[in-house]
Amino acid sequence: MKSPALEEISMYHRQQGITAIGFIILAAFIGLFILAGVKLAPIYLEGMDVKSALTKAKTELDGNRPSIVNIRIRFSAVSTWTACDGFRPRT
Predict the structure, then answer these.
(1) Where on the phi/psi map is residue 34: left (φ > 0), alpha (ψ -120 to 50), or beta?
(2) Range of 80's domain?
(3) Could you give phi then psi for residue 70, rounded to 5 degrees?
């Protein structure tokens, strides 16, 4: 006959893995991070594209005092971003 201490040790060795409810909670938690990444990645990439295009346009037009039309043309040439209509001159 085994002693109670040996039975307790062998019981802990037999318990392995994760329960079904634990797995569902873990999968939901990981799924939320994946969903957030899928939703935020296009926004982040578009912002990086706009920033890169504006930096390129600035270095090409730096010191020339360009007009808004020239800025739009240069920005359109260096960018894959197509919504250039939002630029308004400062008053």
Answers:
(1) alpha
(2) 40-91
(3) -65, -40
**At 66, which amino acid appears?**
P
Which position has the higher pLDDT, 78 or 89? 78
The DSSP code for 17 is S
The one-letter code for the residue type at 56 is: K
The pLDDT score that the predictor gives to residue 17 is 81
pLDDT of residue 5: 62
CB 24 within 8 Å of CB 34: no
Domains of the chain: total: 1
Binned at pLDDT 50, 70 and 90, residue 34 comes out as: very high
Look up the pTM and report it.
Answer: 0.52
Is residue 31 in some structural domain?
Answer: no
* H-assigned helices in 1-91: 4-14, 20-61, 68-78
| CA–CA gap between residue 9 and residue 89 (Å, rounded) | 77
